[in-house]
């Protein structure tokens, strides 16, 4: 009985964690460059159940041998293994703001590869983002809305001196007669990146390989790839599954209560 109790409880915990991921996706539905998290569920190892018994050998002196008759497998519950971001390209929205930049995926040598803007976090470490909602700070540097420096290909902050600039489709920032290559990084496997908040990712990335195609669109933002309608449906499904496990848990609890208060009563 307790096995079923724990199985139902694990289902409730898993649905709660999935609901948290879906709620976070909904809250970031309007965040530029946000990639929706998908909760991956995994079952605990199955247990093969046996019926314990014995068999008598037809000898002069009968002997009893223990035997095991297989009954079948028993599932022991489920858990959320990890959150996997969905890196599908989001739709583009025109803003007309010259500091807004959008990356448009093209053809990459790896199916799981993708490109990112390179920025510098508060500790001076490089991080990667798809959120091109940039601005120019009071010192003339191109920064994110959180104040992180946008880096060039050499890994240095981009100084605009408050001047207007043009960004070409290949990522060249043309400013006052000079050209600055944006720090666009490529990773062959986006699943190896870890989210850090504020739209930043941490992991291994390098220069865009030869043969890869992409483009940068100035005056546009890549929108979140969250499908609000689908996410709301998934939230309802998770809630109903949570409720079903809750009813099972309540039934087990009532059965245990009867076992303690009625079956175990000394008459």
TrEMBL record:
Keywords: Bacterial flagellum, Cell projection, Cilium, Flagellum. GO terms for biological process: bacterial-type flagellum-dependent swarming motility. Residues 113-173 form the Flagellar hook protein FlgE/F/G-like D1 domain. Residues 5-35 form the Flagellar basal body rod protein N-terminal domain. Signal peptide: none annotated. Its main location: other. PANTHER family: FLAGELLAR BASAL-BODY ROD PROTEIN FLGG (PTHR30435:SF19), FLAGELLAR PROTEIN (PTHR30435). Belongs to the flagella basal body rod proteins family. This is Flagellar hook-basal body protein. It comes from Ornithinibacillus hominis.
């Amino acid at each position: 009985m307790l096995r079923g109790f724990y199985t139902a409880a694990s289902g409730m915990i898993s649905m709660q964690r999935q609901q948290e991921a879906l709620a976070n996706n909904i809250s970031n539905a309007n965040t530029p460059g946000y990639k929706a998290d998908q909760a991956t569920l995994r079952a605990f190892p199955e247990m093969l159940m046996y019926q314990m018994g014995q068999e008598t050998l037809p000898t002069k002196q009968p002997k009893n041998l223990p035997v095991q008759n297989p009954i079948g497998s028993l599932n022991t519950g489920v858990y959320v293994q990890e959150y996997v971001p969905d890196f599908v390209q989001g739709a583009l929205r025109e803003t007309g703001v010259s500091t807004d930049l959008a990356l448009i995926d093209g053809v990459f040598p790896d199916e799981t590869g993708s490109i990112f803007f390179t920025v510098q976090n508060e500790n001076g470490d490089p991080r990667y983002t798809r959120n091109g909602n940039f601005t120019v700070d009071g010192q003339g540097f191109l920064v994110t809305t959180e104040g992180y420096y946008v880096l060039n290909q050499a890994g240095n902050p981009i100084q605009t001196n408050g001047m207007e600039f043009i960004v070409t489709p290949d990522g060249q920032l043309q400013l006052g007669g000079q050209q600055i290559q944006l720090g666009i990084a490529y990773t062959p496997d986006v699943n190896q990146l870890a989210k850090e908040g504020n739209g930043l990712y941490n992991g291994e990335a390098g220069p865009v390989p030869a043969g890869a195609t992409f483009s940068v669109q100035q005056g546009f933002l890549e929108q979140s790839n969250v499908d609000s309608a689908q996410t709301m449906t998934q939230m309802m499904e998770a809630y109903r599954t949570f409720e079903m496990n809750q009813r099972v848990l309540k039934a087990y609890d009532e059965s245990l209560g009867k076992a303690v208060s009625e079956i175990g009563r000394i008459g």
